[in-house]
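Researcher: Let's try something more involved. This one mixes different molecule types, so please make sure each is placed in the same coordinate frame as the others.
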Amino acid sequence: AHHPATTHPLAPKINLERVLSELKTLATHSDLTPPAVQRVVYTSSDLSARTYLQRIISEANLAIHEDVVGNLFAVWRGSSSSQSRAVATGSHIDAIPHSGMYDGVLGVLGGLEAIRSLKEAGFTPSRDVHLIMFTSEEPTRFGIGCLGSRVLSAELPHEYMYKLVDSNGTTLDEARKAAGFTKELSEAILPDDTYSAFVELHIEQADSLERSSTHIGAVTSIAAPAQAAVRFSGSGGHAGALPMAERHDPGLAGAELALEVEKAALDGQSNYSVATTGRFEVFPGAVNSVPRTATLELDVRNVELEERNEMLTRIRDSATKIAERRGVRLEFNVTNADAPADCNKHIVEMVAQAAQESGLSYSRLVSRAYHDSLFMARKFPTGMIFVPCRGGVSHRPDDLERIVIRITFIRSLANFRLPFCHI
Amino acid sequence: AHHPATTHPLAPKINLERVLSELKTLATHSDLTPPAVQRVVYTSSDLSARTYLQRIISEANLAIHEDVVGNLFAVWRGSSSSQSRAVATGSHIDAIPHSGMYDGVLGVLGGLEAIRSLKEAGFTPSRDVHLIMFTSEEPTRFGIGCLGSRVLSAELPHEYMYKLVDSNGTTLDEARKAAGFTKELSEAILPDDTYSAFVELHIEQADSLERSSTHIGAVTSIAAPAQAAVRFSGSGGHAGALPMAERHDPGLAGAELALEVEKAALDGQSNYSVATTGRFEVFPGAVNSVPRTATLELDVRNVELEERNEMLTRIRDSATKIAERRGVRLEFNVTNADAPADCNKHIVEMVAQAAQESGLSYSRLVSRAYHDSLFMARKFPTGMIFVPCRGGVSHRPDDLERIVIRITFIRSLANFRLPFCHI
Ligand SMILES: [Mn+2]
Ligand SMILES: [Mn+2]
Ligand SMILES: [Mn+2]
Ligand SMILES: [Mn+2]
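Model: All components are placed in one shared frame. Result:
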């Protein structure tokens, strides 16, 4: 890695109070009372948060455009942008129910602050620098995560987009148009040569950095989930009247499978194997009824695609055997099986070296959670910078109180002048 | 058992069409479209069903009175009722969601038809004969089964009644008053010498009679449920970010417990041991979240009180161990633990002998489900007559189509002149 000292002629000055105040203001655009945040894509809290974001971006004199699903691009025009591809940073601002104020938002407002501090120090890039706010990284409304980054990286076929529907029966297409994003879906995809690099700043959502008192994580790869919807069905019956020997209880099939899901991860080769049964419901759900159905949703992740797929196969085989043994019917649908991604090695090295030069401790690590970077990495050289969060809390409101932002990252990001390439 | 032939001087003639037509009419007093029935206590469908029932009882020239919770008593006055205690038959008409038309209703309308046919044959009893319709045998609304029979048998303390509340926050006391039952709760309890015998006619809710082509079941004892509400709590987390080794997943604790509940019943000494996890819910129930809580409801039954209690103790011990091993918090509340009941031996013999004399096949059997008879048995000599139902179906709407009523039972009930004693 080469990082000549001459790329630091300026001393950009981060305005910490400004970023913290913006983080807190954005947290008030929420359906819930602080510290709990909920900001679901295209709802009024999402739209008002976007309006606020556009205002502070405009105040920084950046040009704004939006795409067909509401991905927002803030453009800092470079001095010779026609000669080289742009670089970009960014993340998301949508928030699942009862989450906190940093997930995603930090990467958007942190990127903005880095740009602003460079501008205020008098710097002008040669390339264009983009700040991206991706639409609906969270799967809350349409059941699929990273909606915006999937769309612009051509990882979400148009036919599939037209099928997405929320729990009220509103389609994605209706919802995006009602929110004012009315262009043709075919205009969504970014050309392959749009960016020479993309880097996303994000809280770690785990506690390895915090426990080791490390300032910065240089992400080397991003684990990806495979998700499955499983339903076992039996004939039910009266909890008092139906003898044990005559039962075909889908709830117990589900219980067995949940434990097999855990085992598949515990037996995994890599210590990045995780597998979760996040949803488990029985119907009719009455104390005196043997269940008629059990509905489970599974999430299986690994940084190695092959091992991830082996875990999923093993779980599916277990489900089949359990269903046979218990005489219940099985439906097993893989709803999502994205491939993991490697970060660009050059960018990982630049992040590490820049941390070193800035006097920040760092470690190389894997992102267990997935991010818009997973999809950006399909098309563009991509990296991620993690900052610690206390207790590894990410999707919970108490991170407002408990999280520690090592705000140094923002200084780093500016010092690096977006660390991924010479701008 | 003595059953002199001279007690059959009359040949009461059952009007099958009348009973079947009344069963079908009562099934239309429902919140659901036939064949599904739902008739929740004190709702408009329950109240309109009561009005219909009162009309046909009045047409049979029986006097009606109701108690503080709406238990209904239809009285056929005997010729020398002051000299001997009354006898009674009856069951319930409330129905859980998506249930069928026979559960409970058969015992009410069948008892009415037996009385009518005896009256129409010119018979007059010496004792009073009561037909009882018990309020809320099903636990649907207030979470406790056999509400009416518990109240009148003094098995439900008044303090407890005042605490009962439905899922909308309406108390039992408010609901009963709104339904027109406004007397003081203290008037609810029947004097100990009210009945010399009580017998309940009911569908078997299992398929042993049907499979063995037996007309009549003479119930010898009634299993009773113990029910428990269980909650495991952990700290949750992101399904991708939280390593397996750091998890304290209450959903998996619940899965283990559900399997232990099954084992406790399978290992039971008697083949009447049953144990069920009828409710299983995880919160927040999102595919990418490690659950923070798992809520289970358990139902454990046996005809032997001691063995039933041993099962419950074993399950509670398992829950404690699972919670310790997984580092999750446990709340384990026994919400209900009624003792099983034996039927009165004399009544069991009379049912058996009367079946024999009527040319009906019969067998002695245990009631796995519980009934208002469980509580009537605490105060009065009690018996039950089971009739077959196809496939053992009881709490499901398809019994409307699939059940076979061996309508002979009604003839039997009349032939026996209420089989439990000489009236
Ligand atoms: Mn998130
Ligand atoms: Mn995020
Ligand atoms: Mn029932
Ligand atoms: Mn019943």
